[in-house]
Write a structure and sequence with these properties.
The protein is of the alpha/beta class. About 40% of the residues lie in helices and about 15% in strands.
């Protein structure tokens, strides 16, 4: 039996569009569950697009971003602040903690090891503040990067005193704060305000220098010392 030109055209049209029609049938079933819509006949489904690969576009990330104030409900964002100081202001801040053991964390946002170690500093503060430990962070960033510093500290929920270098000349600032080398650097003061230990990647370059891994042990040692008068 001969096939008319119209019938032949219809069959060819069905065959050529069979993949799309099967796709539409599949999507129709998905529509019944309310998951998606049917693509146009000549459209393609890009499985490498960000939404289908599990990645997020900038618009997605902005939409899904948790508001800063709600980030860490226990600690309001405005509870984490930063104050610029020179060496005199820093010394006054440390003197205000007389009677407590003070751990100072010198760090910077451009220092990856500083960022890696910082959560441990936060944990020490939370675990030991009731036992007499005061933690102070001292950022050695440029003052012009203050917004970046504040953002990092709020992400870390660093709810202790946060100070920041106030001099755009970092070499001059490092000299003023008597930093022997690069950050991270940690200094531990006893209850009388005396510097007892320094910790860093190169402890041999420090006064009474010890590796960073010894911070916990020395904090416990100074906390165990009984406060004395005078």
């Amino acid at each position: 039996m001969k096939t008319s030109g119209t019938e032949m055209f219809m069959k060819m049209h069905w065959i050529q569009n069979r993949p799309t029609r099967w796709a539409c049938l599949f999507v129709f079933l998905l529509m019944m569950t309310g998951l998606t819509g049917c693509p146009e006949e000549n459209s393609t489904l890009d499985i490498s697009s960000s939404k289908n690969s599990g990645e997020q576009t900038p618009a997605d990330m902005e939409q899904n971003k948790t508001p800063e104030v709600a980030d860490g409900a226990e600690i309001p964002a405005d509870a984490v602040t930063v104050r610029e100081v020179d060496r005199t202001g820093f010394d006054k801040a440390i003197a205000a903690y007389t009677g407590k053991v003070v751990l100072v964390d010198y760090w910077a946002t451009y220092c990856i090891p500083c960022q890696t170690q910082f959560p441990h500093t936060v944990k020490l503060s939370r675990d030991l503040r009731d036992k007499g430990l005061a933690v102070v962070s001292m950022s050695m960033d440029y003052p012009s990067d203050k917004e970046k510093v504040v953002r990092f500290l709020r992400d870390q929920e660093a709810d202790f005193e946060n100070l920041m270098n106030g001099d755009e000349d970092l070499q001059q600032s490092a000299a003023a704060f008597e930093l022997p080398g690069n950050v991270p650097l940690y200094r531990l003061f006893d209850r009388k305000g005396k510097l007892r230990y320094e910790f860093g990647p190169n402890p041999d370059d420090l006064t009474n220098g010890l590796p960073i891994e010894d911070i916990d042990k020395k904090v416990a040692e100074l906390l165990a010392e009984q406060p004395t008068e005078g």
